[in-house]
Amino acid sequence: MNALKVAFFIGVSAILLAITIYNLFYLFELRKAKHHYGFSVPSHMYAFMHINTFLAAMSIFLFSLFFVFTVVAQE
Amino acid sequence: MSDALQSPQIEEEVLFKKRQHWTVLLPSLVLLTFLSLFIITAALGIFTYFSLIPTHPDVLFSIIALTLLFTSTVTAKTIMEWYFHVYTLTTHRIMETCYSPLFSHWINDVLLDEVRCTEIDIKTHGFINQYFNKGDVVITFDRPTHEEEFTLSNVKNPQEVGQIIEQVFKSNNSERPGIIWYRNRFKAQPRSGIGGARA
Predict the structure, then answer these.
(1) CA of A44: how far to CAs of A16, A21, A40, A48, in Å?
(2) How far is residue B95's CA from residue B165's CA, in Å, rounded to a whole number?
(3) Cβ-based contacts of B58 with chain A (< 8 Å)
(4) What does the pLDDT average to over B136-165?
(5) What φ, ψ does residue A42 adopt, rounded to 5°?
(6) When you count CB atoms within 10 A of the terminal residue's CB, does the N or C end of chain B come out lower?
């Protein structure tokens, strides 16, 4: 496995991790807004943000699996 | 937020809370959808044409996953920002609250007892705005506030909003008749009460 593939794996994983962390912080901020600023967020918006965060986290796992079973296994 | 705000001196009643019309979301959401579809289609086309799917499936997966996640994240941010942008009119103040989680939070609050309104303009431009009955209500004050105009942009039914605001100004400045000038371009029938319409 050459350095390019390792760099690709690290780069994509880092971007996916950044999106996951951003979504997680966004969820915390929404919760804070509900408690501190008095904005009540509708439940379907909460659900959408939870699903989005979950998908972002899952995509890191799936990408790692995909990478291992396709690229690493081929070598 | 309850409909009656209690304070030691005065009782404040919320007359309406309005957001911008939902159609303001359409351009950005449509653009995002087309952009993501274009990227995914182009990636699939290129990978199929050059027969790259058997050798580089991880690259295709990463492109599709990143595009979809980016689109859904930006979509959520856009909708949240629209949802948290609220115009509130009470019997004593008009307030614009704008909250973008993780990014910004500001409140533009004008005390109606402290200012004099000289003009309320209602603006509706374009076919789409006419069809959906949305437009801007621009309130001009005669004393220097931090902004001399307060704009309720892209609200639904701006004529009715303008009328409610005019009645609130009249009731707040009833001891100063003749100072307020209101240009009623739509010549609508006077409403029975200022609390008649809500968001």
Answers:
(1) 24, 21, 12, 6
(2) 12
(3) 8-9, 63, 66-67, 70-71
(4) 81
(5) -60, 150
(6) N
Are A71 and B58 a contacting pair at CB < 8 A? yes
- A60–B contact, CB cutoff 8 A: no
Comparing CB atoms, the residue among B62, B80, B99 nearest residue A45 is B80
Q: What is the mean pLDDT of chain A?
A: 85
Q: Is B51 helix (H, G, I), strand (E, B) or coil?
A: coil
Q: What is the pLDDT of residues B21-80, one digit of tens each?
A: 999 999 999 999 999 999 999 999 999 999 888 888 888 888 999 999 999 999 999 999
Please say if the pLDDT value at position B185 is more than 70: no
List phi, psi (to 5°) of B187: 50, 50
**Can you list the pairs that A43-46 forms with residues at least 24 positions away whose Cβ atoms lie under 8 Å?**
A45/B76, A45/B79, A45/B80, A45/B83
At residue B13, the pLDDT reads 85
Residues in contact with A11: Cβ distance below 8 Å, sequence separation at least 6, in sequence order: none
How far apart CA B150 and CA B142 sit, in angstroms, is 12
CA distances from B76 to A22, B8, B102, B172, B177 (A): 12, 39, 13, 40, 48
Q: Could you tell me how many residues make up chain B?
A: 199
